[in-house]
Design brief:
Helices cover about 30% and strands about 25% of the residues. It is of the alpha/beta class and about 425 residues long. Strand 12 and strand 13 (about 220) form a beta hairpin. Helix 3 packs parallel to helix 7 and helix 9 (about 240-250) runs parallel beside helix 13 (about 390-405). The structure holds shikimate-3-phosphate and phosphoenolpyruvate. Shikimate-3-phosphate binds near residues 25, 171, 173, 197 and 319. This is 3-phosphoshikimate 1-carboxyvinyltransferase. It comes from Propionispira arboris.
Length: about 425
């Protein structure tokens, strides 16, 4: 597929301002929830990237009119909780696990048939984690290898019933699928996770007038009969995209960046905690709210980092940032040890394997464990050609390692379009400032 990209070593610190594009998780949810709402919703600062456009395409194929009125502005004409229509074709979730798993939660209770497909990566990712609890609620779902993988078909079922489900892993996608199905189920649906994962679904359900009962890491939802959409959803910037600049500015001496409009929901700010723990110079300014989501501008200056240790409890709060945290650790003094991160093996690619194999081509300093990484810091990086495995976060982390080190060539580099289409252009702007 796609082409190679060479990122040269930066010769100076990176300075100035970056406006961070919309949050991927919140963008997905804004379109899904608005489609089920009772009036048209205007969505601003939507992430116009491949994953979120997969959600738009899925909802359109279910009969929802979605108008794009600007590069990042959309109007979703919701048809209510029971307004979705049977799709005429197989629905394609592309590369997006969030699209597929949340849509299964919405569609399992619908009185029509839906078949999902996706790209090669999504065909390898585990879907049993969603199909199992939805089936326990009475959904009828079939899929490859005894309902573990795509392709998956949701067969019309009679009314679902609530369950009390103990999740085996912390996963916002699984939690969200169960809560969304729970809106349509008889009785109460309760879901408990081992550690708290991102809570954007809970916050947006509350924005749409749904009452949730929260206790520790458990959330209970009851059947919902009205879903009151707000007029406007303003999506905050994605801290998972800001993460690349937080690390770049920290490790490239002479840097000072202001990252504008970053979502700082505490269930997502593990990257800030870890970088600050490593000695990073990070300040939050202009703290405010966008709906129920906290937002801030972040000032980051270069600093001498040192290694750290972290494990299972914080992983859900930084799960997508581990590739770029590994880059920070390569430049830090001393060792960094990450444990409890087995979930990285079932992302767009096996990220623990991809980090170890590809980052070690730049400097042989990383050892993988079954559920984590040990990274020896103060590595002397050399230039190399590395594989992205068509994984956007691996490609962007490699680009930051190359820019801060001695350069890198990345294959299938365009996969950044999955979550951050402007990434390379922003990097070039910083180079030329
Ligand atoms: O709910 C979401 O929007 C997401 C949840 C996380 O996945 P898991 O739920 O599989 O941990 C994360 O990795 C993904 O990028 C987005
Ligand atoms: C894992 C990711 O997304 P998804 O699960 O939606 O494919 C990600 O963006 O890093």
């Amino acid at each position: 597929m796609g082409g190679n990209k060479t990122v040269d070593s930066l010769k100076h610190g990176i300075c100035g301002e970056i406006f961070i594009p919309g949050d991927k998780s919140i963008s997905h949810r804004s379109v899904m929830f608005s489609s089920l709402g009772d009036r048209a919703v205007r969505i601003r600062n939507f992430l116009n990237a491949q994953d979120c456009m997969s959600t738009v395409a899925c909802m359109r194929s279910l009969g929802i009119q979605i108008d794009q009125i600007g590069p990042t502005e959309f109007i979703v004409h919701g048809k209510g909780l029971h307004g979705l229509q049977e799709p005429q074709c197989i629905v394609d979730a592309g590369n997006s696990g969030t699209t597929l798993r949340l849509m299964m939660g919405i569609l399992a209770p619908q009185p029509f048939l839906t078949t999902f497909t996706g790209d090669a990566s999504l065909h390898k990712r585990p879907m049993g984690r969603v199909i199992k609890p939805l089936s326990a609620m009475g959904a009828h779902i079939v899929g490859r290898e005894s309902a573990k993988f795509l392709p998956v078909t949701l067969i019309p079922t009679q009314k679902l019933k609530g369950i009390d489900y103990q999740m085996p892993m912390a996963s916002a996608q699984v939690k969200s699928a169960i809560l969304l199905a729970g809106m349509y189920a008889d009785g109460e649906t309760r879901v408990t996770e081992p550690y708290t994962s991102r809570d954007h679904t809970e916050k947006m359900l509350e924005t749409f007038g749904v009452a949730l009962d929260k206790e520790g890491t458990s959330i209970t939802i009851k059947a919902v009969d009205s879903f009151h959409a707000p007029e406007l959803i303003e999506v905050p910037g994605d801290i998972s995209s800001a993460a690349f600049w937080l690390v770049a500015a920290s490790i490239i001496s002479g840097s000072e960046l202001t990252l504008r409009n970053v979502g700082v929901n505490p269930t997502r700010t593990g990257i800030l905690d870890i970088l600050i723990d490593m000695g990073a110079d990070i300040t939050l300014i202009n703290k405010r709210f966008s709906g129920k989501e906290p937002v801030a501008d972040i000032v980051v200056k270069s600093a001498a980092l040192h290694g750290t240790t972290f494990g299972a409890e914080i992983i859900p709060r930084l799960v997508d940032e581990i590739p770029v945290i590994a880059v920070a650790a390569m430049f830090a003094e001393g060792e960094t040890v990450i444990t409890g991160a087995g979930e990285l093996r079932v992302k767009e690619t096996d990220r623990l394997q991809a980090i170890t194999t590809e980052f070690n081509k730049l400097a042989d300093c990383i050892i993988a464990a079954e559920d984590g990484l040990t990274i020896k810091g103060s590595a002397k990086l050399k230039a190399a050609s590395c594989l992205s495995y068509h994984d956007h976060r691996i490609a962007m982390a490699l680009a930051i390692a190359g820019a801060a080190g001695a350069g890198v060539t990345i294959d299938n580099a365009e996969c950044v379009n999955i979550s951050y289409p402007e990434f390379y252009a922003t990097l070039e702007t910083l180079r030329n400032r």
